[in-house]
Amino acid sequence: MAKKSVKKKKENSIHIKLENDEAIISKKDLLSSEINLLRISQIIENYRKLRSEEIKKKRLILKRSKEIKKDLSKLQIILPNLKIPKILKGENYDPNDKKEKTTFEIPKNKGNIERQLLEIQERLNKLSQ
After folding, report:
1. Does some domain include residue 51?
2. How high is the pLDDT of residue 98?
3. Given Cys at both, which of 18, 53, 72, 129 links 23, Cβ 3.0 to 4.6 Å?
4. Residue 50 structural domain
């Protein structure tokens, strides 16, 4: 049985004759492909090293951020509570509340300001002409 499989292999193989120039070009192509594969292998190895360093640094950052969070919670316990005005808290602010009431004056001469703005605009137009 082994002889039959050897005969089949011999029958299935195809030989192609190459000229000397073609053989040299194909060898050069093969060698350049090997060089490219080796370079890709180096790049992949470098990527693995960098990725490993990145993961280590991310773990360190996570660890330190947890430590900072613990320290902040300890500080909040130690430090006294401050009374923050309702405005700064963003809570419902009642403008009628007499404790924190502020007054704003609305200019009565609103028409006067608009007239002055128009005059200034006219002067600018004259200068630009």
Report:
1. yes
2. 54
3. 18
4. 19-90
